[in-house]
Every structure is written in structure tokens, then in C-alpha cells.
Amino acid sequence: MLIVLVLAVTAAACGESGPLERVGEASGGWVTAVTTPTTIAPPVVIEVGNEDLVGAGDVLWANDDIGPVSPSSDPHTAIAVVWDRQLGSRFVQASRAEIAAALPTIQFPEAVPDDVRWVTSQLVFDPASGLLDVDTSAAFGLWTVEPYTVESGRLAVLRVGSAPDGIGAAKSDVVPIIVPDGLSLGWTEAGLRYELFCRVTISEAVCNAIVDSFVPLNGLLSA
User: Fold this and answer.
1) More confident of the two residues 208 and 35
2) What CATH code is assigned to 2-30+44-220?
3) Are 202 and 48 in contact (CB under 8 A)?
């Protein structure tokens, strides 16, 4: 099963367009984020060596103001609602509540690098069917600057797709793969396959600490 995971992650990480291909692009009804913080509480800081991580609830989720779907909605309903916003690209901007409803077992890191200020989130579709793409069903971008203004401001990208048949519910080993401009870590859990790409400016220790902090996305909705 580990071999299957390595092949799947390698294909995604080393594809023709690279690990950042179309993830977090300004498409599918992007709503420009305000630049003021949404909380006045001091962030919780986690130290990793000489670097810091902060809670994902202390950053601005850029798409949370779009979409009428609640996290308890039926997955088919959530997917259909987001697909109706599709404007050409198969990457469609979606709130974290919509993504949590569409993929009930999906997880997201509770801790992110302390210079991350925005998170973008999308559901990714098979245009022929209007259903979620199997290889990449959801994508998230972690930004230090206002999204889509400076490409180098995107520190990390998380892709989530369906795990290969036969992969168990328990979390698999995390497989590191060196890719251009950074490090890619891949694993499976609860029927989903995860690939976290960290730019070279993020240390391997911090990238692994992000993976270790994953929690159900539903649990971050009130953050």
C-alpha cells in the first residue's frame, strides 16, 4: 500500500505543471479578501526550533464569506452548489464549510507558519461530470500576502483527493518527495490522499510539524 501511495504522490508532485499547477488560482468566483484581521485575540504560537507556527484560526480564510452551505449539509448538495458557481476553471472557490460538507472526513492543519496571513480554499471538479475530481478534490493555498497578488507569497499548497482502493482508514506513513522549489509530503487517511507542498523557505521540521497538526476541518469552522 505504501508503494501505491508513493506512486500517487509522485505523479501529483512531479506532473508537467509542477506542484503549484492551478492550485489557488484566481478563478471560479474569487472574492477579494479584506486585509484586516478577524480576531483580536493574541495568536497561540508553537515553536519549532527557531521557527514559529500559529493556529489556523488566527489567519483569514479568504472564502468564508461565500456559499450558503453549512458543514452539516449533504455532500451531494454541497458539491452541486459549488459547481453551480463554476465559471470556466475546474478549480472553484469554496468556503471551508462547503468543503467540510463535501468531504466529511477531510482534515486540515491546526498550525501554520506564523507569516501566513490568508488561506484560500477550492473544490476541484471533473468538468465532464460536474463531480469532484478523484485525484484532487480540494485544494488550499497558504499565503503571506493578499492571495493572487504575488505568486511567491504562496508558501504552501495542500491537495486532497481520493485514496487508492484498498487503503485503510488509519493514517499511513508520511512519504517525503523532493520537488522543484520545495518539499512534498504525502499520506493517506480515512479514505483520502493528502499532499502538502512546502516552499523551500519552509524548513523540513516545520513542514512535518504542520502535518502532525492535522485535525478534522469541521473542528476549525468555529475558529
Assistant:
1) 208
2) 3.30.200.100
3) no
